[in-house]
Amino acid sequence: MEEERRGGGEGVAEGVLYVKVMTDEQMEVLRRQISVYATICEQLVEMHKAVTAQQDSLAGMRLGSLYCDPLMTPGGHKITARQRWTPTPMQLQILESIFDQGNGTPSKQKIKEITLELSQHGQISETNVYNWFQNRRARSKRKQTAHLPNNSESEIEADDESPNEKKPKSEKHTHENLPRTDALSIRGTQTNSDVLSVDPEPNLRQGMYASNDSS
Amino acid sequence: MEEERRGGGEGVAEGVLYVKVMTDEQMEVLRRQISVYATICEQLVEMHKAVTAQQDSLAGMRLGSLYCDPLMTPGGHKITARQRWTPTPMQLQILESIFDQGNGTPSKQKIKEITLELSQHGQISETNVYNWFQNRRARSKRKQTAHLPNNSESEIEADDESPNEKKPKSEKHTHENLPRTDALSIRGTQTNSDVLSVDPEPNLRQGMYASNDSS
DNA sequence: TTCATATGAATGAATG
DNA sequence: CATTCATTCATATGAA
């Protein structure tokens, strides 16, 4: 599927000319920047849709066409694929055994040692190890949360913008959910004359960042 | 030539020896181009905001009906309901710019100003800003533990079966004064080319964070 | 192809 | 501030 991730070098008859024409860092930068204005463009599309919809109601004409089909979508950037680390079976085994030792919280020093150990079996970085443990613990904990809560109620979550509800997200968020809108939130809410009204309604918590005035 | 000028950091990642065909200058060119586009888009958004707002406010004379509820549904609860704040690209840009300014720890007063500024681009609270800076600093500092004093990685190792890569986050740069333009600040920076001089909303950035009155 | 899932990585928020 | 937690995003892989 992704054999053409480096589509830059076409015309190769035989052999996979496998060269990177940009460093990951460069690619990351570009990706970021492109993503920025791609999102903005998406907002523009939404606005245009809104505007044309108004006109539509007046003239009765319909011209709702999407004129924005970028090469990538904010939901899935297909610009580049960043390869991610994959532990070798050997590494995985070692990691698993360390994890099973109960020393659930490997400190930084541990991480270094483990990384050094694992680097004998393949490329690896401390970040990889760190992430692995983080994920391992988090996911093992989530598995336990699948305790068949048998919630007899049916909380009707009508607002499922995500049709795929396979992920067992039966967790319980014990914190207040702030009515957060998505990235392109400028289209909703008040597009009235009060578009730019600052809504300084911060969900200020108890402590915040400064209990007192440090001035 | 200058294909190896940039101290990107990585030259050989895994088995694959790749060359850098993009120079700093090329990169800079792309960056600036994208920056221009981003700025244009940003201004377009503002323009459309003004337009839609105007239409809406003039609905009494034009439409005469409150039919301005096409797709947005001001009270649309079904857009997305996330518990966690996610900065919009524009907000991110602004935050990054501020962060790169080296003004380090923003004081409480700064936070307020920044929050006010960012609220023009989406829902945000002071806590969000504070957390962002906290995380930003902490994580950028964690980018220093991946190199060994005598780590000669000039060797091309192709023995491993794990095609992986380090984690070069885009912000490898410490907040040192980069000679290049900052990460496209699509915000206040009035487009030098004055592409679309439509700025009917002077109150977009009233205070900004320029007013440094911290204690 | 498309969908579903596992999982590495990113990150906002919380805790010390 | 330094670490950790919790959640989400993105990608690799396999099944339908």
Automatic annotation (TrEMBL), chains A, B:
One of its GO terms (molecular function) is DNA binding. It comes from the Eukaryota. Residues 78-143 form the Homeobox domain. GO terms for cellular component: nucleus. Residues 163-179 have a biased composition (Basic and acidic residues). Coiled coil: none annotated. Residues 141-215 are annotated as: Disordered. Residues 80-144 bind DNA. The keyword Nucleus applies. The keyword Hydrolase does not apply. Keywords: DNA-binding, Homeobox, Nucleus. Transmembrane segments: none annotated. It is found in: Nucleus. This is WUSCHEL-related homeobox 8. The chain holds residues 1 to 215 of 262 of the full protein.
